[in-house]
Design a protein that fits this description.
By secondary structure, the chain is α+β, with helices and mostly antiparallel strands. The protein has 2 domains: 190 residues, no CATH class; 182 residues, no CATH class. The protein is built from 11 helices and 13 strands. The strands form 2 sheets. A 6-stranded mixed β-barrel has the order 3-4-10-7-9-8. Strands 2-11 form a two-stranded antiparallel sheet. The chain is elongated, with a radius of gyration of 32 Å. It starts with a helix and ends in a 5-residue tail after the last helix.
């Protein structure tokens, strides 16, 4: 029999007398439990937000993007394109020309992010779930079409069913000694029918997708010039391995970035906020654990006679110390276990039923996203254990130093 553990359990679970110290121990346990539950839930929400952003980016951005290290454009020669297509793991390669342009529709106009893509872009099928009106079409029977984001549609009151009103795209002509914004001849222009409208998230609300040849002509690009190359990897391909292989092919003049690389600042912001929130909740758990310090200190005073009897029976100071350390562990770990279970249950229920709503009409999803991670649960457990040791050691040491009469 583990004598220190048996005595500690008797002190905590005894129903013969519920003193103020006993209720303070229960309050300490509840405080640790609530803090642990909150820490699990909040960290899981941050994980869910990070995963949600990855899902959003996956709907529009490619697995790998190749762009110039200097300047806006580069020449994608047929040789380079063939070498990239033959790289292990490469599925689809899309040539892209992207820049700001002026969009006009009927009496409205707005500045848009114009993205010209070649014919295999729609084979990626990324926008299939984001289509809200019309259809995904860029070219059909020699007619060029544009696919616009919902923000552009709302700004210009675009109707995809109206085939008589084209979407006009304007871009300043090059090599002009003087530029007059009021002079219509100072702009290159292209007119396209709108085939469909998509909605992903607010950051993509000003995009217009158009055929690559049309955008090249509008922006004055040479036939092989692009602003980027987007690559979809084959399923099961290791991203880091593919990234290194592609970087070897394109050389040092071009830069290969994964989807996470393109959004590294956002992920860093989420993780920093998660860190500071976690530290704040950990301090709350520590404050709740301080109650353990006070309850154990008063328990040592209350059980002074018991401690002296134990010494008289031959107990060592180490045994007495372990009794009160285990007592503190029972209080803290019971609360932590209850908090972990409740936190996990709340996260699973939120993931399944989404009963806590975002509360904003423009949100991509209705409910707060959550995602449990084993690492967060282990860190939470480690915080509770550390707080327990810090708050239990001094009362236990004081009990060990109690002298005989």
């Amino acid at each position: 029999m583990n004598l220190p553990a048996w005595i500690a359990r008797r002190y905590f679970f005894s129903k013969k007398k519920r003193s103020f110290i006993s209720w303070l121990s229960i309050l300490s346990m509840l405080g640790v439990g609530v803090g642990t539950m909150a820490l699990v839930v909040v960290l899981s929400v941050f994980n869910g937000m990070e995963e949600l952003n990855r899902t959003i980016f996956k709907t529009f951005e490619a697995d790998m993007t190749i762009s110039p290290r200097e300047g806006k454009r580069f020449t994608a020669s047929p040789t380079l394109l063939n070498r990239l297509r033959q790289t292990p793991g490469v599925g689809l390669l899309t040539q892209v020309v992207q820049d700001n342009a002026l969009a006009r529709y009927d009496d409205g106009q707005t500045v848009v992010q114009l993205k010209g893509v070649d014919e295999n872009y729609l084979q990626r099928r990324q926008l299939d779930t984001a289509l809200v009106e019309g259809k995904l079409l860029l070219q059909d029977e020699g007619i060029n079409y544009a696919i616009v984001a919902e923000g552009v549609r709302n700004d210009l009151s675009i109707s995809p069913v109206d085939i008589l009103t084209p979407l006009e795209l304007w871009y300043p002509q090059k090599n002009q000694t003087t530029f007059n914004i009021l002079n219509a001849d100072a702009f290159n222009r292209q007119a396209l029918n709108v085939s469909g409208v998509f909605f992903i998230e607010q950051r993509y609300d000003n995009f217009v997708l158009a055929p690559l040849t049309v955008v090249r002509e509008l922006l004055g690009y040479a036939p092989n010039q692009v602003t980027g190359l987007e690559i979809q990897l084959l399923p099961g391909t290791d991203e880091e391995t593919a990234k290194q292989a592609l970087q070897t092919v394109v050389g040092e003049q071009l830069r290969v970035q994964s989807r996470d690389d393109l959004n590294v600042d956002l992920y860093r912001a989420i993780r920093v906020e998660k860190l500071f929130t976690g530290v704040t909740l950990a301090l709350i758990i520590l404050v709740a654990s301080i109650n353990i310090f006070f309850s154990l200190s008063m328990l040592v005073i209350e059980k002074r006679d018991d401690i002296q009897i134990l010494y008289a029976m031959g107990a060592t100071s180490g045994l007495v110390r372990r009794i009160f350390l285990i007592e503190g562990a029972i209080i803290a770990l019971t609360g932590a276990l209850v908090g972990l279970v409740l936190g996990i249950v709340i996260c699973l229920l939120q993931e399944q039923y989404g009963f806590i709503q975002m509360g904003t009409v423009s949100s991509v999803i209705d409910a707060y996203p959550v995602r449990l991670q084993l690492g967060d649960l282990l860190i939470t457990g480690a915080i509770v254990v550390l707080a327990t040791i810090l708050t239990s050691w001094f009362p236990a040491q004081r009990a060990a130093r109690t002298s005989l009469i």
